[in-house]
Amino acid sequence: MISYTMVGTKNLHKAAEFFDKVLGVVGAARFIENERMILWGTSPSDPFFAICLPYDGNEATVGNGTMTTFFANSPEQVAEIHKTALEAGGTSEGEPGIRAEKYYMAYFRDLDGNKFAAFHQPA
User: Is residue 59 part of a domain?
Assistant: First the structure.
């Protein structure tokens, strides 16, 4: 259903370093890259995540209420994603823990202020 999701960045190089670390936790690697955008994925048949310099040339801004969530294979991987994001310069928006009585999640913002979550749903 979803092919990829994309957020804007003010600094493609710094954002790429951030997401290389964060998405590396779940085994994602750069899949497509050019001077304006980079896409990460785990396989050609799975959805991708991308960053870009805005096409209109204006500064990237954060969407109010917008959030991208990355799937994690375990609660430990949720915690590792969150920890890695903070070590790479991101900020915490919510420590790892149970949400809505059944989801294990953690929230963070990237270097541009975009909001993300790491998500695991126990069996």
Answer: no
In a domain, 60, yes or no: no
Find where tokens 């370093």 sit: 17
- Does the residue 19 lie in any domain? yes
Residue 64 in tokens: 């109010």
Reported as a single tens digit per residue, the pLDDT across 20-46 is 999 999 999 999 999 999 999 999 999
Total structural domains within the chain? 1
DSSP assigned state of 26: T
Query: Exposed, middle or buried, 105 (CB in 10 Å: 0-12/13-18/19+)?
Result: buried
Provide the domain limits for residue 93.
4-54+67-120
At a CB cut-off of 8 Å and minimum separation 6, what does 58 contact? none
